[in-house]
Amino acid sequence: MSQVKRIVIAAVCAALCIVLPMAFHSIPNAGALWLPMHIPVMVSGLVAGPVAGAVTGLLGPVLSSLLTGMPAAPILPSMTCELVVYGLVSGLLCAHVRTGRLPLDLYVSLVGAMICGRIVGGLLQALIFSAGSYSLAAWATAYFLTGLPGIVLQLVVVVPVVVALERAGLVPARYGTDR
Question: pLDDT, tens digit, for every residue of 2-15?
């Protein structure tokens, strides 16, 4: 895939990081529940690679915060770090996981990124952003229980979107057409 195409994918996904939360935030607390910014960041990493995914994870929340006020300034640093990890790790795993089956490759990469991002997010909360007042219970609640609808949404939406992009010829095929 050309560098220009990677940049375009990252830019479109960063724009989706602005638009999707606007749609979800008409519902109270929908951002924390549905995690709408995570979807384009992970799609960017899976489709365009780790650098594009990380850049999307950085630009998406920063631009959204500047343009819409979401996420709010106190949440922005930790959320940005978490999203950078999601984009980076999804891209790294997707580049190295080769099972011979596209959906399996994508799910392994997606779930691995979801786990790494939540671990890094929790560690940063505990060590930097909420040092001294962050517990394992707060981490489990914030990153797993509250966001459970978003986790399910990511598992249901991200892989089919990436497969559809590949089948439509918008991104290069990972394997031959018989898989």
Answer: 999 999 999 999 99
